[in-house]
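Cross-posted from the bioinformatics board.
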Amino acid sequence: KAGVTQTPRYLIKTRGQQVTLSCSPISGHRSVSWYQQTPGQGLQFLFEYFSETQRNKGNFPGRFSGRQFSNSRSEMNVSTLELGDSALYLCASSQQDTYTEAFFGQGTRLTVV
Amino acid sequence: GIQVEQSPPDLILQEGANSTLRCNFSDSVNNLQWFHQNPWGQLINLFYIPSGTKQNGRLSATTVATERYSLLYISSSQTTDSGVYFCAGRMDSSYKLIFGSGTRLLVRP
């Protein structure tokens, strides 16, 4: 069974640009959540989707958005990139809408210059 | 909000030594998990352990939910055990995982 797949693995963007990251969950998993990891703030929750609905959102500005498609694949978008958005972005999938084990992808490392 | 404290923050061991990593929660949590972050950044699942004790080879974990802590034991450590270990859990009313700040482990040959 394939794991959680994130693309791309690495990205370099310029301040002011926007970026879209993709996450394909484990087959059969319907919940997808996103996390940002930085040296200063650690791992922080961005948002969570289940059946194309955002159920939870972390404390991030509106420049950070996401969506989930009918096949459970998810994308997150960051607009008007800032240097501080440089981070490792991790996606996790879970099987059900109840509290179950989360599995993470390899992450997308975003560098904003 | 809920706070997750991990200790120690850093740990250096000689190969073959044993260690215990601790995770304390300020409030009750569900779905407690332990992860190992590899050098490429991926979080590798070690244990899903809301309560009780589990073992997987040289690793074992114990969660005492009523006392709001979990322990990860590493026995006969190997250099490949090096990396950062995270614990994380969810509150009842939330779908998000709350992570500790991690324990950075270095195992020397």
